[in-house]
Amino acid sequence: MEVRNSDHAAAVPQSSHVPYTPRTPRIRRQQFSLGLRQSIPAREDVEAEINDGIEMLELLDQSWVVYGVSLLFGLQYDNKLMLKLYGKKLREEVASTLSHDNVSYDAKFSVMEGIKVRPGPPAIKIVVNSTSADDKKVEKCIYKGIFVSWPNEPEESNNKNFVKLPILLCKGSQSIIKAINVIISRMFDCMIIPLPASEVDLLWLIPILLSLDLEWQSDTQELLMEYKIPGYPDSDSITVRHRLCDVLKLWTGICQENKHLENRENIMVEDMERFHDILQKHMLRISGLQLGLCNLNKIQLPYLMMMNNKMKVKHTDVMDQVLRYLHEEAVTMLHFIQMDSLSTDNSDS
Question: What is the pLDDT of residue 24?
Answer without folding.
Answer: 40
